[in-house]
Every structure is written in C-alpha cells, then in structure tokens.
Design a protein that fits this description.
Blueprint (H helix, E strand, L loop, with lengths): L8 H19 L6 E9 L6 H5 L5 H14 L4 E4 L2 E4 L4 E4 L4 H13 L2 E4 L8 H4 L6 H15 L5 E2 L10 H7 L4 E2 L8 E3 L2 E3 L7 E3 L7 E3 L2 H10 L3 E6 L7 H16 L3 E3 L1 H13 L1
Parallel strand pairs: 1-2, 1-12, 1-13, 2-5, 6-7, 7-9
Antiparallel strand pairs: 3-4, 8-9, 10-11
The structure holds zinc ion (ZN).
C-alpha cells in the first residue's frame, strides 16, 4: 500500500495567504471615481437669440439642463465666454449686456457652480478672427471682465472647440489660470502649481463643424468612457443636444448611474483643491 503524501506546512500557509489576499481585494473599497461636469458655451444669448436658436442654443435649454443636475444635487463648471462673436454680422456681443443670462449664472454660482472662462469671443472662424482667443491681452482682459461680473477670481480655462491655438496655452498660464481644462496632456498632472486635466468626454455626435445636426451618443458609450477613464472623468455638455425630453431623460439616467456608482461629482476648482492637498500635503 502506498502511503498518501502528507501536505506540508508551507503549502497550507501559501494557500491561506492567497485566500486572504483575494478576500482583501474583494472587500477593499475601490477609490471613488471623480467626475467633473463641464457645461460649455454660456454667453450673451439675448441679442444673438436668432443666430443661436439655429444651433439649438437658448437660455431655456440651459435652464432645462441645469435643472436636471439640480435634481441630483450636483454642481458643474460653467464655461463662459465674455464677448461672443457673431459670424453672420461680424460683431461681438458682451455678456455684460445680457442681464437674464447674468442673473442665471450668478444664481448657479451661489449654488456652488464654478464660473470658468471659455475663450474670449469663441471665434473659431479663420476668416474673421484667427488667434482672437489666443492672445495674452484678450485672455487677461476677458478674465478681468468675468471676475468683475462674478466677483471672485477665475481659476479655470476651457479652450473653445477643445483647441489650443498657437501660443494660447502659455498665454493662459501667464494670465494666472491654475486649471487647464481639456489640456494637451493625456493624464492629470501638476506643473508649477498649474493642474493640467485631460480632454473631456463629449457625447455630441455631429455631421460637421457649424452644422445644426447634432445627436447624442448612446448612453452605454458614456458609461464605457467613464469606466475607461483613470484619475478623473470629465463630461462635457452643450445645451443644444438636450433640447428634447428624451435627451434630458438620458442625462438624468446617466446621473442616476453616477449616483449608483458612488461617484464624486465636483467642479474643476474642487478637483484642484483635492489634488493640491494630496500633491503638496
Ligand atoms: Zn464652446
């Protein structure tokens, strides 16, 4: 008769250790996902109403969008343009003269939303104003204008069209901004006290630039983009793709999903404060 080989001590210890590690991994809390919601293209809508309505932009559509966030108790970063350029008339409209928009934005700010700068005139039309959003003078002037209008320092810059024109990145830094949204860098990083944040996820699908045909990517694509992101997920929203009840319901469902994931929804400036605390102690 062959004697059964007895399991040796080290075998059992190794097995127990492996089980212990597995159990720890299963029950350990996953790091909370950080999510920033960025709402773009807030500017003088009153005087440019007809022009913007063509693209689905209106104060009413913005209100409907932020009402959805409010229902979830979330705040967002508002990307605001101080002097919007109207290409069909070759003129700019100052935010300062749209009292309804100012009142709306100030109300959101008092709820904890962040005001950020979104270019100087959001002019992406080469014929009229190539470089207008990129010059140091305009960036510094626009920052001052928004600080006067909203009564507190601006920290975040969001480039129009997610594009960095020549010299723009450095000029934005020189003007004193601390948070570079949609930066040219693919992961979040601190550089000389400035926080670079990777490109946001934009669920807008469109046929081409300056067209009025927009639609939303299916929600499972938003979810996939969020699951794939590492340090922070930024959702970029424009009100023109949320001008139907179905689209607003899509956003509502996504925010419910974020709640179920226990995501930490914050503004860029709140993200900066957290990142600075962990980077510099
Ligand atoms: Zn924009």
């Amino acid at each position: 008769m062959v004697a059964r080989k007895k399991r040796s001590g080290p075998y059992w210890i190794a097995l127990l250790l492996a089980l212990l590690i597995l159990a720890t991994l299963l029950v350990a809390p996953r790091p909370q996902k950080k999510v920033v919601i960025e709402i773009d293209d807030l500017w003088n809508m009153e005087e440019g109403g007809q022009y913007f309505a063509r693209y689905g932009y209106s104060l009413e559509n913005y209100r409907a969008l932020t009402d959805v966030l409010d229902r979830h108790g979330y705040v967002a970063t508002l990307a605001v343009t101080p002097h919007i350029f109207i290409e069909t008339e070759n003129k700019t409209l100052p935010l300062r003269s749209d009292e309804a928009m100012l009142a709306y934005l100030r109300g959101l700010k008092s709820e904890g939303y962040e005001i950020a700068m979104h270019g100087y005139s959001h002019c992406l039309n080469r014929t009229y104003c190539d470089g207008e959003d990129a010059s140091y003078e305009n960036i510094a002037d626009g920052k001052q204008e928004l600080e006067d209008l909203f009564g507190s320092p601006l920290l975040t810059y969001v480039p129009p069209g997610n594009l960095w024109k020549e010299g723009q990145y450095q000029n934005v830094r020189s003007a004193g901004f601390k948070i570079m949204a949609n930066s040219p860098f693919t992961s979040m990083r601190f550089d000389g006290g400035v926080l670079d944040i990777p490109r946001a996820y934009d669920p807008v699908q469109m046929w081409g630039w300056y067209t009025a045909d927009f639609w939303l990517a299916p929600r499972n694509e938003w979810v996939a983009a969020m699951e794939k992101s590492d340090s922070v997920f930024v959702l970029q929203l424009h009100c023109n793709t949320f001008d139907t009840r179905e689209e607003l319901d899509d956003l509502d469902a996504f925010l419910t999903y974020l709640g179920g994931k226990n995501a930490k929804v914050m503004t860029y400036s709140q993200l900066y404060a957290e990142a600075a605390a962990s980077a510099f102690g």
